[in-house]
Amino acid sequence: xxxxxxxxxxxxxxxxxxxxxxxxxxxxxxxxxxxxxxxxxxxxxxxxxxxxxxxxxxxxxxxxxxxxxxxxxxxxxxxxxxxxxxxxxxxxxxxxxxxxxxxxxxxxxxxxxxxxxxxxxxxxxxxxxxxxxxxxxxxxxxxxxxxxxxxxxxxxxxxxxxxxxxxxxxxxxxxxxxxxxxxxxxxxxxxxxxxxxxxxxxxxxxxxxxxxxxxxxxxxxxxxxxxxxxxxxxxxxxxxxxxxxxxxxxxxxx
Length: 254
Prior knowledge:
It is a single chain. This protein is an alpha+beta fold. It has two helices and 15 strands. The strands form two sheets. Strands 1, 3, 4, 6, 11, 12, 13 and 15 form an eight-stranded antiparallel beta sheet that branches. A seven-stranded antiparallel beta sheet has the order 2-5-14-7-8-9-10, with no helix packed on it.
């Protein structure tokens, strides 16, 4: 009991000392100044948030206006079993077959095989655009998607570009800060996809089957070639893997 009484008295004594310290004029003034500064900061943060929202609304309105004025610039549907508007430079790559109404990329990937990406580019360069592809994809080591902002390097693949591409399970967005988004998981997958990319200035929106997965500003808004990126990740597995991609349509509006 004596120990408890001593503890209670000690706490009360410390409380009195704290109250006396807090009530000193200089400490009261410091506390008031701190609270005033915090209140000012909250007001500024609220103003900044309102300004950001207004700016975003203006940008979004500009984008919607641009969309209404866009025209179809590229429409590849392979109805004549060939590319009409993109430069296809891989006639000797056995993975590729152009059928009526479909570009096919299929075959086997063997253990130890090097990864490979193929770029099928537009003839012209684009700045703001909306692009969409309809694709069926099977095999987790295969991928297909859309690239943009690329500069031609002759027969070599571009080393600077941005892209959004997917496997049956994952969407990858590469804009300098690379991100990935799960689609179907390990068991289920999205083999049939409509991949859509909207780029206006630095604002980028990417969706798969109507589901928006990326909607943000990116580091660059370079003008460049646009097109299809198709490939496989190489022989990462101990057994032979089958891959199959079928692209039915690729469209670009500007």
